[in-house]
TrEMBL record:
Signal peptide: none annotated. Residues 23-120 form the Transglutaminase-like domain. InterPro entries: Papain-like_cys_pep_sf, Transglutaminase-like. SUPFAM superfamilies: Cysteine proteinases. This is Transglutaminase superfamily protein. Pfam families: Transglut_core (PF01841). It comes from the Bacteria.
Amino acid sequence: MNDDLAYYAEPGPLTKGAKELPSDIRELLAAVQDRLVHEPGHPDHPTGHLRRAEEILAHPDRPLLGSCRHFTLLVVVALRAHGIPARARCGFATYFVPGWHIDHWVAEYWHDGAWRLADAQLHPSLIADLGIDFDPVDVPRTGFHVAGTTWLQYRSGDLDPHRCGIEGPDTHGPWWIASNLIRDTAALSKLELLPWDVWGAMPGPTDPITEDLTTLLDNLATLTTNPETAADSRTLYPTESVKVPEKVFNFLRGSTELVDLDA
């Protein structure tokens, strides 16, 4: 196992524990689906704001109301607990709403000499409802685009940025793609924050994306799009615009919150 794989086989600050979950990827997805449920009201529920895997696993609610990031985090923490390289990826899925790239998180894990994508939110009933024809433990990269891929498609003029994010006012556009790219970069450095945590250079819906920020995002996207070079984004993670600070802004709660990065 090379150094990059070894790095992703070890837990991070938010991904400790979970040896009780299975290491087999199919069994793991089923176990996570037994523990979590994704419903439209999850951002308004207190459990939707749990950042740490230990908090999610220890919570008495079963199933626990959570986001796609919660599903992803439990897959990542379990695989790392069993010594399997895994990392959370933030980006956009094309299989939820036709014509849209919907804000989403999946797990990327090492299997048979390659990085593969697994979507733990794809319960068999949801697969049937959506008419999905791929295996949720091997999601095609045409179905889920890491944020860097979406950014480069937008920059090349091949993608309408206002079909990227979530349907609704001010919940899509270049700013959303840029923010997800910063979240994905942080996750590649094992800081898998909430989908609505805001920090650093993440722009708002009306904020201009400056030339300097565009250059940084182009560089991040070039590294993170290819799973073989994604780990190299760690060299840019310490940049002040990207690095997770001790406190972040929880957009949904409208509050600044402490993130214990050393736990």
